[in-house]
Amino acid sequence: MRSEEEMMELILSVAETEPHIRGIIMNGSRVNPNVTPDSFQDYDIVYVVTELTSFIADHSWVDVFGKRLIMQMPDEMQLYSIDQEPKQKFTYLMQFMDGNRIDLTLYQRNHLPENQDSLSVVLLDKDNNLPALREPDDSDYLVKKPSLYDIENCTNEFWWVSTYVAKGLARLQLPYAKEMMEGPVREMLKRMISWYIGAKNNFQVNVGSAGKYFEYFLEDHIWQDYKRTYADGEYLNNWKALFQMGELFITLSRELTSQLNYPQADSEGIHVFEYLKYLHKSSADQQDSY
Predict the structure, then answer these.
(1) Sign of torsion, CA 35 96 80 56?
(2) Contact 283, 173 (CB under 8 A)
(3) In this predicted model, which residue has the larger pLDDT, 78 or 198?
(4) Best CA proximity match to 198, nearest among 227, 218, 220, 182
């Protein structure tokens, strides 16, 4: 695997020798002082360019970065199409055979966002006109303090869609039930966990994309409970996971509202939880009668 020094030298040398590239900004975990470096970190790079046409007319120019395992160009994919004419930026996501990865975005100089991500550093500025950046920090990624209205909406969505999960399980419609559980219900649970962690840390904490740092911030017993919310493809285990999600949501929402001196907002959830248990028992009794 190429070292960080080799990769940075390569990224810089490509920009220095190409006249249409006028600057480099690096962002992401490699400039985050609160992240412990490891070999899985991407190189999140922005090349500030005078124009895009010459680059995207022939994508083979990125071969200079090394032998690729796979590459994605989201701006050219129908899955992630962005109606933007003329193009102002273009992204190459490149995973290399040696384990390194570069997420490279080309930005037209006159369309570079004025407000850069808080995790950004300027590596090269040929024309001395890139925006001045403060020392990188993860302030853009800190958990924001919720209002009571935020908590109420999160709670309502969690319990409302939980009924979809239960009906899907009761009807033996596993794909639908899993879609609801791992989509809206999971998202609301993660939001509640993030707020809970935020409140415990004076909202000066970054829990990471998709809650990837939950394990580091949660008490061990809560983390163990959260792990039990992930189920396999067995119906009984998904019922258990759904109930674990509900119990954990109630516990954390009570802790959160208490910490923020908000009134508790879980009375609706208590009733829905009983309804979920009723659906489970009804479906089990019905299946036993077959």
Answers:
(1) positive
(2) no
(3) 198
(4) 218
